[in-house]
């Protein structure tokens, strides 16, 4: 893969991530519909078949989660590579060519809006029992959603036992505008 092809991947990562998230939402809706149908049915072979289908859907969802994580890591990696360019002119050229710059309203929506980085973090955080509270994952989601500078004061890293699930108590987000010259 050439450097141009490598950097060119960045433009399409958001669309691919969004498509994967949409697949996960469709799978979850399917599981919820099947679960509701199963609860009204008498126990028997048909319920076992739906349980097998639900297990397969959950496994597919985990595979999609892993793919999203891989895409987010690639997106962050490309941003780090571009940021590592020492020459300001070359770095700016690379950013303008490969990293689509969203206006402030789009960035705020991508971070704070429905289905934005913060909502995706909260869903990810609460989706598994025993998952440590991990602000690094939130940082990655914020940066890949368009945040230029991030200072996370909360949450802090907390290891959870295998019987605990993280729960949001207060959601407080603030941001400030950064001039393009500060990039």
Question: What is the fold's blueprint, element by element?
Answer:
Blueprint: H1 3-8, H2 10-40, H3 45-83, H4 88-98, H5 104-112, H6 117-125, H7 135-144
Helix pairs in contact: 2-3, 3-7, 6-7
Question: TL;DR?
Answer:
63% of the residues lie in helices and 0% in strands.
Number of helices: 7
Regions with little confidence, pLDDT below 50 for 5+ residues: 179-183
Percent strand equals under 5%
Shape: globular
Structural class: mainly alpha
**Biggest beta sheet attributes:** none
| Number of discrete domains | 2
Evaluate the radius of gyration. 20 Å
* First-residue to last-residue Cα separation: 28 Å
Average predicted confidence as pLDDT: 75
Order of helices and strands: HHHHHHH
The total strand number stands at 0
Q: Percent range for helical residues?
A: 55-70%
Walkthrough of the structure:
The chain is 63% helix and 0% strand. The chain has helices at residues 3-8, 10-40, 45-83, 88-98, 104-112, 117-125, 135-144. With 183 residues, it is mostly helical. The longest helix is centred in the middle third of the chain and has 39 residues, at 45-83. It is globular.
Key features of this structure:
single chain, 183 residues, 2 domains, 7 helices, 63% helix, disordered C terminus
